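Bench log, entry 3. Co-assembly request; chain sequences pasted below exactly as received.
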Amino acid sequence: MPTDTTVAPAHSPDQEAPLAVVRAADRAYRLSLRALLAALALLVIAGLVSATVGAAGLPVSAVVSALLDALPGVRVDSGLTTSQEAILWSIRLPRAVLSMLVGAALGMAGAAYQGVFRNPLADPYLLGVSAGAGLGAVLALGFDLDLSFGPFNAVPAAAFAGALLAVSGSALIARGSFSSAATLLLSGVAMAALFSAAQTYALQRLDETRAREALSWLFGQLTTHGWDQVLLLLPYVGLSGVVLLAYARHLDVLRLGDDEAKALGLKPARTRLVVIIAATLMTAAAVSVSGLIAFVGLVVPHVVRMLTGHSYRVVLPLAGVLGGAFLASVDVGARTLVAPAELPVGVITAFVGAPFFAFVLWRRGAPR
Amino acid sequence: MRLQATGLRVRLRRDEVLHGIDLHLEAGEWLGVIGPNGAGKSTLLKALAGVLRHTGTLEIGSGPRATQIALMPQAPLLPEGMSVVEYVLLGRTAHLGWLRGETRRDRRIAAEVIGRLRLDEFVDRPVTSLSGGEAQRAVVARALAQQTQILLLDEPTSALDLGHQAEVLSVVDELRRQDGISVIAAMHDLGSAARYADRLQLLAAGSTAAVGTPTQVLDPDVLTRVYRTPLDVHQLDGEIVVLPRRAATTGRNNP
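Structure output for the full assembly:
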């Protein structure tokens, strides 16, 4: 190739960028409407299944009618009896919405953690959220530790406090430096080990009944008392979700590594700080009402990447929506598989998630 | 004058690795930064690009540094699953508001740059699937999308074969001629440095050992002292070639 044709001059008329390139540039980083609508459709279906399936079966059409009827200005007769209405509004729907919120929180937080650590194996529990929350919950359930405040009852309050304590500890070991992802990650490992050890010790001290109760919390369970848990979780998921979506573009820049991101004008340490705070608050709030639900935060973002693309502007919103759909579906299984007893939902997510994750890794081939 | 740096010092952990570098750059000028391993070439470029903290004064045009200076790193990180057009668009980062995404104009600029660097057919391809030379073009395109007056090249050719080395350097050289961009290039190959640079700045152990035109700086005595190896400077058809001096005893290998 002769050297004088390697670069076209700027703005030369024959070098107007071809339409295909302009189109590609217009599409870049955009979440396609089709993908979003498909994900939302899955979420709605999962929600409806969750609302209809259970000991008292509610017809889908009646549930849809009842939901429409609740909209302002719409009058539809659902045909549900008063007790069916009560089951729908104070048992089924709160549970369906809670599972969606927890799933959305874990999915988004997982994607965010993978972004700031530039590590596909990162999950929302990486900096000690799970170990901290676990210890808090065990102390509350087994030793009557009562940190309840505002809308937080004793167990969620202790779990929330433990989660934040563990993550703050990780940040402290890393000397508050969010400039090195590796240091922060290793601090998280140390903190998680410490809190897990304390939790194991505390569990050992408990009598059988309390230990079983604590264990079932640790495996994750979505029990609701009306809309309390939903209302408690909603502000955290909402606010943190907005922050994470606003920082999705920064996470895309961070994929180039800290040095190149800096050269492009980004402040990686600040981005990491903001994203970790938002993702941690979201995760801690979710964990405090649901216990430790494994694999959602790890697997859901990967599925989204396989289906769509790697940009965080696509992955974050879809991981939220699909995380919600996934957990709502899994929760139906948790409620019905061994009815009238319930399986811890975290057991099912792990049963589904682990083989799936293994499959993904196997398909990717040998580690690079 | 496009850039004037005075007394640049950089500390990495406890050690000072740049000891007060002075440097200036004219519009459209190519400054070659040369020196042995560990002399501070990359450190100097990273400091200029705002990647490393430094003391001393740096006078450049107004606005955020990333709108004035673009850096082509030594080993660019090519993220998995990122397309060429997405990669190039990241060059617009410094021009975007804190919470604002790319505008129509940013997207047009990226498209135009992709056309200029003849990356059209790769536009939707993952950057990880490109060959070494194509990937380098994508990196140049990203830097060009940054629309800066100054381009820093950190050992732009160390991972490329001879043909692709020449291609990347001539691409940058043409951009300099067409757009009047100023270039600072850290280079190992003294011959290439002499061919492209208007001036050379020779670093040794974090300080400037010599600065001037290629013929001034590529002096056998200076180079021998700085590189701690006997070096000879030859003129070959108007090109400068620097070679290690051959030990007399090796003549036995000749038939």
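Residues 71 and 152 of chain B are 5 Å apart (CA to CA). Chain B has a mean pLDDT of 88.
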